[in-house]
Design a protein that fits this description.
Length: 507
RNA sequence: GGCCCGUUCGUCUAAGGGCUAGGACACCACCCUUUCACGGUGGUGAUACGGGUUCGAAUCCCGUACGGGCUACCA
């Protein structure tokens, strides 16, 4: 009986894909998959002046990276195409005309200059931004204020014009939002929004209802910033297709930055990514950093986004995509905006790295090490190294700091931490360690540690005095996993080489 | 200015009339660790305010304050 759910994400390809955008995709996707429905991606490219080359492809790459693949899209096709609004251009005018004929919309001939003049002329302290609404429309040049003959004449002569919705004067529009419940608006306070632009492209307001209808969308999710224009869309639905055809709406809470709606500026200012992946503005060449390049795992990214405004009612916080699909429900989405906390975001990533199998991490870690100029030719070693250090990596590039010394001898050693307390006894001790290691038949961490400590005891040296120098010999500084684990993985030859080399520097 | 939405630790949140208001991040302390992390234990820390309704309100209602969004031939 109930229709198969169809949801859609409708970005405009004007730049990088924002955190909030990805979360909207995610909630759409989760809802669709949870309820056995379809997830449609539609490109809202009705503003030709804002066309940005590469932005659409970028969006697809982002979705690919996070693994939220649409069932229908300009790229994947589907039975309701085309999925790019610019390619649907011829469809829209008839609906706008239909509204004019029914008396719900009208032609408006005002030029941008005239509109600007109106805004200036009627601007007062009480009303800083005058609207093109029922109080003003008879003072403007449109098919309501002009005679039929004048209107026809303007139309016939090909005068540039738009079609505006005629908002009723005394009506209350209300609907039930899936997240915030009953919401209502007084139509006398809403302006006569443009539905069809002078270039025959629809505005968002017309396009969203026409396309949602034509694409048989059952549930429409979007950011809360759209709430104020909901009455326009609802009226269009009512006049064009009937309210019983209208999808159910859910206005998602906003993701906030330190001051208001999170913007890419916030990212630059406070040092965290806002876009899913790196985005370079083709005009300015300005690069905005993305979560992927910052070193986030896509699974972690999805996970942290899901929990920004939603929870399953338990204390569980780490979810795989499948678990999210299973647990997701819109009525557990918060209605209040959520401030983005980068520290918590990093914690999610750390959890995912810690819990990941070393083998699963191997390809991406290898890429990172190689990008930093290291050569990795022993895959088995790499896997062991990852297993050893992943607990201390929060972001993927941390693997370079934590594991780089396995693949490259440390360029500089922290000799200052050793030299002041260095003496002949230690020299002799390490000489003996070298002899012992050279003869050691087995090369294994516990064995090495036992031998090391035996030699220390025999030389009346406390292990604590030589452990740190040993570490610095191998890794260059005071960091890394257990020294003997490091030595074990480094191998006999390399370990001894590093001891000898360091000895010459410490003396 | 107008309209709309919102308000529980610094942050993300749980608790849909009945508990010492719970968890997580961050922070602090201790333990583990002869490095740094991981891990473990504990701690600091919140119902914006004022009125109702009720035997009883974080929870329901009203007002105030504060925050956010919108107010384009942009989405």
């Amino acid at each position: 009986m109930t229709k198969r759910p169809r949801v859609r994400f409708a970005p405009s390809p004007t730049g990088g894909l924002h955190l909030g955008g990805v979360r909207t995709v995610l909630y759409n996707y989760l809802f669709a998959k949870k309820n056995g429905g379809d997830f449609v991606l539609r490109i809202e490219d009705t503003d030709q002046s804002r066309y940005v080359p590469g932005a659409e492809e970028y969006i697809f790459n982002c979705l690919d990276w996070v693994g939220l693949t649409p069932d229908e899209s300009p790229l994947h096709g589907g039975p309701f195409g085309p999925y790019r609004q610019s390619e649907r251009k011829p469809m829209y005018r008839q609906y706008a005309e239909q509204l004019v004929k029914a008396g719900h919309a009208y032609y408006a001939f005002d030029t941008p200059e005239e509109l600007e003049k109106m805004r200036q002329d009627f601007k007062t302290e009480q009303n800083p931004s005058p609207q093109y609404d029922h109080t003003l429309r008879m003072k403007m040049r449109n098919s309501l204020s002009l005679s039929e003959a004048e209107t026809q004449q303007l139309l016939d002569s090909g005068t540039r014009h738009v079609i505006r919705i005629k908002m009723p004067e005394q009506e209350t529009i209300s609907f039930t939002d899936m997240i915030r419940g009953e919401v209502s608006f007084d139509t006398s306070l809403v302006d006569d929004k443009v539905l069809l632009k002078a270039d025959n492209m629809p505005t968002y307001h017309l396009a969203v209802v026409v396309d949602d209808y034509l694409m048989q969308i059952t549930h429409a999710f979007r950011g809360e910033e759209w709430l104020p224009s909901a009455p326009v869309h609802i009226l269009c639905w009512k006049y064009l297709f009937g309210l019983d055809q209208m999808p159910q709406w859910a206005h998602l809470p906003l993701i906030l930055g330190p001051n208001g709606k999170l913007s890419k500026r916030d990212g630059a200012k406070y040092g965290f990514p806002v876009f899913a992946m790196n985005w370079t503005d083709p005009k300015t060449n300005e690069l905005t950093e993305g979560f992927r390049e910052k070193g986030f795992l896509p699974e972690a990214f999805i996970n942290l986004l899901a929990l920004l405004g939603w929870n399953d009612g338990t204390e569980k916080e780490i979810f795989t995509k499948e678990e999210l699909i299973n647990a997701f429900s819109l009525d557990r989405v918060h209605s209040a905006g959520a401030k983005f906390d980068y520290e918590k975001a990093k914690w999610f990533n750390h959890e995912w790295i810690k819990n990941a199998d070393a083998s699963a991490l191997k390809p991406v870690v290898k890429t990172i090490l190689e990008e930093k100029g290291l050569t990795v030719n022993d895959e088995a070693l790499l896997e062991k190294v990852i297993g050893l250090v992943k607990d201390r990596c929060t972001l993927l590039p941390d693997f370079y700091e934590q594991a780089g010394f396995f693949f490259q001898r440390p360029a500089v050693l922290d000799t200052e931490s050793v030299k002041p307390k260095w003496n002949d006894a230690k020299n002799l001790f390490f000489a003996e360690v070298i002899r012992n290691f050279e003869l050691s038949p087995v090369w294994e961490a516990h064995e090495l540690e036992a031998n090391f400590k035996e030699i220390a005891a025999a030389n009346k040296i406390k292990p604590g005095e030589v452990l740190m120098p040993f570490r610095i010999m191998l890794v260059g500084g005071k960091f890394g996993p257990h020294v003997f684990d490091i030595a074990a993985l480094l191998g006999k030859e390399e370990t001894i080489h590093r001891i000898k080399n360091a000895l010459s520097l410490f003396a």
